[in-house]
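Record type: monomer structure entry
Structure origin: computed from sequence
Chain ID: A
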Amino acid sequence: MATAQFPSMIGLRAGDVLQVTRVCSVQFIRPIFFRLIKVRTDLITYEGWVWLDGYQLDEKGDALARRELFVIREGIRRVNRPIGPTPAQPRRRPVDQRPG
């Protein structure tokens, strides 16, 4: 029987970064990272499946393409840390070592 999946049921929020693998759907032979815009509650789906709207991310965390994914809810993994390198620290001026 087809049922709607509500965001509160799966605990996903806009801005979450997800790892989507073959566990979610056979189309993801290579895992992707995905920044969630919203869970599509307006679409009726099968029990355990969900439509997600968001952006596929590259290794730096930049958006490659906007996508809608139809995936198994249980296979979705939230990534706890930002994707990509951490921001560079500001450079400090060298200390003048000349005797005064």
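Annotation 1: The longest helix spans residues 7-10.
Annotation 2: The chain has a mean pLDDT of 82.
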